[in-house]
Amino acid sequence: MRELFTADFFRGNRKQLRALLTKSVPVILTANGQLQRSVDTAYPFQQDTYFWYLTGIAEPDVILVLDKDEEYLILPQRSAYQDAFDGRVDKKALATQSGVHEIYNYKEGWTKLTGRLRHAKQVATITPPPQYLETYGMYSNPARWVLRRSILQENEAIELLDLRKPLATLRMIKQTPELTAIKRAISITTQGFSEVTRAANLKKYSYEYEVEADLARAFQRAKSGHAFQPIIAGGKRACTLHNTDLQGKITSNELLLFDIGAAYHGYAADISRTIAIDSPSKRQREVYDAVREVQISAFSLLKPGVILAEYEKQIEQIMGEKLKELGLIKVINTESVRKFYPHATSHHLGLDVHDADDRASPLEPDMVITVEPGIYIPSESIGVRIEDDIRITNEGVEILSGSLSSELD
Question: Phi, psi at residue 41, to the nearest 5°?
């Protein structure tokens, strides 16, 4: 089978990045670092997606340098313990995967880079996120902070230029291998969902975690895995947008919400469906139909040239009209709508589930985004979300996950 992501893909991405930069400055990016889980064990490693996009390398702590017509990798310092337990880094494999053939050990690589940094006025890198992300209640990977500190230690007067916007510009438009990977991730997701939601299977589940276990098994059989922690939530628990605890008991009179996605070659699917275990009540059906109608309206609005920030305002108004019809609000405004619909309708999709983007830029063909309206009514124990993955085309949209039924029952 032909390899999906070859060195040519990563070489091409590096070439495009250089072409976007208005100044000829050294470009320096770091891989993620491993994070301690306990004592001498680490959490499963997850590569920085910007770094992977430019190299295809899955190793931690490697540094990529692009400088004029030269490009090279700097390997991290490694202990004898790491070599013994994790294996030695294979330079030949890194070169084959990335197309970067100059690879230096830590000391010789930093000696080379230091000589350049001491005379440089500017360096392009990725600005580190805050060390603690208050909105999400979690700590960020420290690798970018370590790189920033190392650069400034060599030249404290150097100006650091942020690469996030040019890299987002590239990543938003998906190339053929990326579209292939996303479509495969979607196919694996739809197959897994269809399997666990067969009537015979649904009847056997008592708890949310039992559904997830079978879903994970289906993904693994397809040589895949979860792109993100799956959300499977019944009744009122579906009103917690990221219900990942999965300890809830499934009851036949509640709706069951799925927000799931497989990953293929690192590219994610992200699909939501809400289903009735038995026959839905009239009220459940009304709420579900309202969400589905908002989604259909969203599909009709999307096309090249649309600005997502403006589109979201349109969807807020449409959702407000539905919430008013349901008797949930009397006046349509942001505050009233967001009480029952607290999230955005669309986000970009790719290497990250919430992929790199510039929401002020107009949509273009071959961008892949989600469309996921929802209504959440804790007082009625009803949470409904319907999410599909779409590709922007010259005419409008292609619903990539459209083969998966979105019917309530």
Answer: -120, 150
